[in-house]
Amino acid sequence: MTALAPLELAGRLALAVGLAVFMGLAYEETYKTEERSSPGGIRTFPMLAMCGATLYLIEPAHALAFITGLLGLVVWLHAYLRRAPATPQASSFMIPASNLLVEADLTTQDWDYNWWGDSLMNNIEYRKIKVDTNLAVHAQKPFPLAEVVLAIERQVRNTQAFCRRAAEAQFFQPGCPIQYNRPLPPDSNQPRGSAP
Fold first, then answer.
1. Apex CA 97: angle with CA 92 and CA 98, to 5°?
2. Rounded distance, CA 64 to CA 131, Å?
3. Are the beta carbons of 117 and 178 closer than 8 angstroms?
4. Where would a tag sit more exposed on the chain, N or C end, judged by fewer CB atoms within 10 A?
5. Cβ count near 74 (within 10 Å)
């Protein structure tokens, strides 16, 4: 590894600290206005940036000092979160700026089929996140979660019907049978008394 010129090194350090200052400001503005107990902010982010840069400069060939410092930070954060007092809102470093979930196509509104079944809802429940609005990567706009769930249910019905037709034709379709472990409400498009 080649050594950096002092001016280039100073510029990189200034950039790291400057970005950390803006991250600290954003963190404090969105999260620390009401709840002040979580660490982080205008002083912490630049300090961590300077410590990380300094530890990297101590031994840049393998970054062992930086990795050791990073592991120390992880141990400290783990200890902090483990001994946090029990509150209705669990301790976390997530910034609840909005209840928008951006996901990589576990569903998209205008699909005919959904091969991932209830993965979206399972992930939301497992991670205990509050979601009001969902934005899929290939969606044209965000949708309320209730509309997304209705679309998933429609898509799951279509996929189940497709899988039944494939099985009747003795055709192997990867993904069949679809895994969906939630009760589906009655299909509003299906006539009463007919089989699904």
1. 110
2. 40
3. yes
4. N
5. 10
Structure tokens at 46: 């630049």
- Domain ranges, ordered by start, for the chain: 6-82, 100-168
How does pLDDT run across 130-181, given as a tens digit for each residue?
Answer: 888 888 877 778 888 899 999 999 999 999 999 999 999 999 888 888 888 8
pTM for the predicted model, two decimal places: 0.48
Residue-averaged pLDDT of the chain? 79
87 Cβ contact list (under 8 Å, min separation 6): none
Q: What is the pLDDT of residues 17-58, one digit of tens each?
A: 888 888 888 777 766 665 656 667 778 888 888 888 888 888
What's the distance, Cα to Cα, between the start and end of the chain in Å?
66
Output 140-147 pairs: Cβ under 8 A, ≥24 positions apart. 142/100, 143/109, 145/101, 147/109
Supply the DSSP symbol for 182: S
Count Cβ atoms within 10 A of the Cβ of residue 94 and give its class: 0-12 exposed, 13-18 middle, 19 or more buried: exposed
